[in-house]
Amino acid sequence: MLTTYREKTAALLEGSGRYYKAGRYLDIFLITLIMVNVIAIVLESVPSLAKQYQDFFLELELVSVAIFSIEYLLRLWCSVDKIEYKNLSSSNLKKRIKYFFSPLAIIDLLAILPTLLMVFITFDLRFLRVIRLLRIFKLTRYSRAMQLLLAAFKEEGSSLLAAFFIMSVVLIMASCGIYLLEHDIQPDKFGSIPQSMWWAMATLTTVGYGDVVPVTAAGRFFGGVITLLSMGMVAIPTGLLASSFADQLRKRRDAFNEAVLHSLIDGEIDPSEKEHLEMLRIELGLSHAEANQAIKIMTSQRVHALYCKHCGNKL
Q: Where is the signal peptide (predicted)?
């Protein structure tokens, strides 16, 4: 039972329990505000629109930063009542510090920091506009796909680093090879190894801009070999992320299925267990359809397990 304002605020911001509907409405409002901000920032880069609607853009920015700042401070204040921090034995200050350095909290801070710094430091407006576009990453909090992707990056961090290390080695080797083969013929394009890295990067990523190309027979043969290698190199991190993404989704579904089975120990799901499953569903980022399907399947399996497969009598 939620008793304090801080607990109620945490439930509202997380959209859990009886504050589910209110939390969803709040999420929709914040998502809409983020998208309006992104559109406004893009339109503001058009000089004629920036001059004509200067006051509107400024007012929207100030109102948005005020709302995002209030949201950020409230999330920091009630972070001690979040599920992942509530049961920790550390003090409230340490819990808030831990939340302060969490990825989502850093994204929330980046959404308001450029405008706040503008008050104290003079910025190039073009630079400030680009930095403010980082506000779109706040959608990560409300996007299940982005949360799964971040979890996949975290899970496969060491493997991705190994893949990028291998790609870096291949990049250097490709740059050195094309430099040796082409620098005498095209000193303006392959005059040094760092200069040759542009061609190597475009080739290894299969982009192939075509502005820098080898002209000698040996250089073209070498370029073909690098192109064939690049197909496998680019596929490595893609395959790792795809596999980890699917694995994260499977783990979340398995965790919810286990919780449903635990709730069905007594044969039925009571209201308190339903509330717990709903909170778990939100935390895991599962849809209502997925949750209902899991409950239906687990209940069916539970019912079949109570009867003998041979005689059909209840065990």
A: none
The pLDDT value recorded for residue 242 is 84
- pLDDT average, residue stretch 168-186: 92
Contact 112, 68 (CB under 8 A): yes
Q: Check: CATH 3.40.50.1820 for 147-241? A: no
What residues contact residue 93 under an 8 Å CB cut-off, 6+ apart?
none
Two tokens, residue 75:
């999330």
d(CA 241, CA 234): 12
CATH of region 5-142, choose from 1.20.120.350, 3.30.565.10, 3.40.640.10, 3.40.50.300: 1.20.120.350
Residue with tokens 């929330």: 108
Cα pseudo-dihedral 282, 284, 288, 293, rounded to 10: -150
Give the span between the Cα atoms of 111 and 131, in whole angstroms.
9
Task: Supply angle C-alpha 286, 25, 246, rounded to 5.
Answer: 20
Q: How far is Cα 200 from Cα 164, in angstroms, rounded to an integer?
A: 15
pLDDT for residue 310 = 47
